[in-house]
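Encode chain A's predicted structure.
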Amino acid sequence: MIIENNVPVPSDISGTRKYPFNKMQVGDSFALPVAHYKRLQRAAHAYGDYHGLKFSVRNQGETVRVWRVA
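Encoded structure for chain A:
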């Protein structure tokens, strides 16, 4: 393993997030296949707790939808 020094930290890491929570405004939503339900529910809860936001995750048959509610 190589230890490196003086490597700058990227100023914008928003493009590396798996889900677009950081780009959502209250009332926005997105949907994914229902296979992502549990992982998405945990991610929304963790992101919301850390950033003081609220999300609602609902199963809609073939998809799961996440809304930013506060």
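Helices lie at 37-51.
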